[in-house]
Amino acid sequence: MSELAKSHLLPTYARVNLAFERGEGAWLVATNGERYLDFTSGVAVNALGHAHPHLVAAITEQVKKLWHPSNLYGIPESERVAERLCAASFADVAFFCNSGAEAVECAIKMARKYQSASGKPERYRIITFDGAFHGRTLATLAAGGQKKYLDGFGPVVDGFDQMPFADLPATRKAIGPQTAAILIEPIMGEGGVRVVPPEFLRALRRLCDDNGLLLVFDEVQTGMGRTGELFAYQRCGVAPDVMALAKALGGGFPVGACLATNEAAKGMTTGTHGSTFGGNPLAMAAAAAVLDVMLADGFLDRVRRTSLILKQKLAEIKDRYPGVIVEIRGEGLLIGLRAVVPSTELVDELRNEKMITVAAGDNVVRLLPPLVVTEAEVSDAVGRLDRACARIACARQREREGALG
Prior knowledge:
The protein is of the alpha/beta class. The chain has helices spanning 41-44, 53-63, 76-87, 100-117, 138-144, 147-150, 168-174, 198-211, 281-294, 299-320, 343-352, 375-404; strands spanning 20-24, 27-30, 35-38, 93-97, 125-129, 160-163, 179-184, 187-188, 194-195, 214-218, 242-245, 256-260, 325-331, 334-339, 355-356, 358-360, 364-367. The protein contains twelve helices and 17 strands.
C-alpha cells in the first residue's frame, strides 16, 4: 500500500503519487531527488517561481515581527498594499481575504449590497457564463453552474443565471428587473483557457452602464501578470466595477483581494463583511514583495516577450503533431493546448518527461510556467513536449496499424 493510500486526509483530490520537497525558480525537486520543470506553478499561484529571494526575504523579515493582530486594529501593511493595488488598477478600495473563492464571494455580496444601497433591493441576480469556474463555496459553485461540482450538495444557491459563452443576444435578453450584475472571467482558465473576445467584454460594459448593473471580473487566475499585463482587463480596454484577485497575489502565500470603485462598494459599510485572517501582516508582506517584482521596469515586457517565444514554438509542435494537438489558446503565460487525444494522457506523458502541467475543461492542457521562466527553460519545455507528443503519435500509429492488420 502506498503512502498516499494510508493518508488521513479527506480524499477529495485525485493526487498523483508524486511529492516535492523543495524548489527553485521554475524547477521542483521531488522527494526522490528527481528534478521537474514546473509548468503548473501551483495552478497559476507561484508566479515568481519557487524560493524567489525577494519574496523569501520579505516573509522571513515579517515572520520575526508580527503575524496576526486581527482587523479589530489598524494594519499598516494592508493599507500600503491596498494603496498600491488601487494605484495600479481601476479601483479605489480593496478588501483582503485568503482565497479566490472568498474574493468572489465578496464581489457577489458587494454587487447585491450595491443595488440595495441604491434603493433596489429586489436586484440580486447575477448573470454568469457556461464553463466558468468561480470557486468551491456554495455560492461560487452556483455562479459557475457546473453540474459535476454541484451534484450532491442540496438545493443550488439561488441568484445566478448562466448564459452561453460570449452570447450577447442571450445576455441582453437575460437582463431583467432582478438583475444586479454580470460576472465573468476575461479568460476562462479552468473552463479550457477560452479567451473572451474583447468586443464581448466591451459590450458587457455598455450593457451594465445602460441598465444600472455592476460589471464584475473574476481575475483570480488571470490577474497579477499572468496575461502579460498586471490585470487581464487592461488588455481589452474595459474596466470592471469590481474585481476578484488571489492565486499569484501572494506568490504562493494564501491571500485574496476584492477590488472595487467607491461607487460599487458604497453598500459595504461597517459590519457588512469580514475575514479573520484577511490582510494580516504576513500575507501583506508577501503581496507587497510580489508587487515590488511585478511593477519593476521591464518585468511585464519580459513576460510578453517570453509568451511570444513560447507560442511560436508551440505552433511548430501543433503543426508537427496534428493528431495530438489541434489548437493553441490563451494570452501571456496562460496557455492552453487543446488536445485530440485525452488531455490527461498528454499530462501523464509530460510528467514522464519530468515536466508538470495541469488539465482543464474542453480537453485542454494548461501551460502555466512561473512568470520568471527563462527562454532557455521555455526551449527545454518545448523539447519535452515534442518527445511526449512523438510517443503519443507513435502509439496511435501502432494502434491504427494493429486495427488494419
